[in-house]
Amino acid sequence: MTLRNIPGVRRRGAAMLFAAALSLYGCIDRRDLYDPDLEMTFDPCRNLETFGVRAWACPEGSGPAEGTLLLDDARIIRDGGKWLPEKTLLWPARDRKVFVLAYAPYGTASAISPERGVEFEGIDAEAIAEDLLYSDPVPDASKGRDGVIPLTFYPALCRVDFRLRTDAFPVEKVEVKALRALTLVTRGDFQSLPSPKWTLSGNPGPVTLAEGSFLLEGEPTVISGNHPLIPQRISTRFEAEIDYTDTNGIPSHWTVSTEPVEKNFIPGRSYYVDLMFSVETCTLTTL
């Protein structure tokens, strides 16, 4: 009688084979086999009303050129605690990555592409009511973060505070009625890739920065706060219309301007321009 014909040995051999099969199955990463349906949602870093998204599903290790379009300038809205497309979108299979570009406010982008990023065309900074925002590309978004794609937005314009002060005595009165930049470009086109860039259009001209009544003191007074400008390298004079009342209560009106001011404004940055009106010399200078 051979060993394999002994009943007990056959049972033990079968058990060992079954155990080996279980062990082999346990070595397989069963997470790779688990690919449930999952809504695609977003997590913007800013408090927004809505924003737009273009997204591509790409094979592992490739980009949008080899991928398929998932969202084509889709409007993203807040629904409860989630940001999601107006039409529900499920994630592609786990072995696919997603490439995303986003912007805000929705409807302001003229084009969105992996080569040029987010584009805003024909922008007039004097007519802007809201910030123009763009996101960096999110090149390898995956299903593993509970289906949520984080988005960081950056301003395409820059913002400037224009501040004035004076050396007048407290008994004197200095009131700014208007402040202007004499040579600024206010129109242009923007693209976010390969790096944020504005292409200016039109000729530089005068821009009214503020009109009203602003009393000056020894400390800076904001005449025009958070003013939106198309980023550019400027060389401009600033001009102020000023009503002055001397110590005897005698009023006069002066128009004064600075020497040319040169600055380089960069997208997304905040700046301030400090000006000084001297009663003694009747001049406007930069600080």
Tell me what the structure shows:
- A hairpin with a 3-residue loop joins strand 6 (111-113) and strand 7.
- This protein is mostly beta strands.
- The protein contains one helix and 23 strands.
- The chain has one helix at residues 7-27, and strands spanning 41-44, 51-59, 68-79, 82-85, 96-104, 111-113, 117-124, 133-135, 138-141, 148-151, 153-155, 158-166, 173-184, 187-191, 197-201, 205-215, 221-229, 233-236, 238-245, 251-257, 261-264, 270-278, 283-286.
Keywords:
mainly beta, four-stranded antiparallel beta sheet, about 290 residues, 1 helix
Number of DSSP helical runs: 1
Distance between the termini: 108 Å
| Poorly predicted regions | 1-11, 13-30
In sequence order, what are the helices and strands, one letter per element?
A: HEEEEEEEEEEEEEEEEEEEEEEE
Average pLDDT confidence is 89
Largest sheet: 7 strands, antiparallel
Helix content: under 10%
Question: What is the number of strand segments?
Answer: 23
Give the CA-based shape: elongated
> What is the rounded Rg?
32 Å
| Oligomeric description of these chains | single chain
| Beta-strand content bin | over 45%
Structural class, by secondary structure, is mainly beta
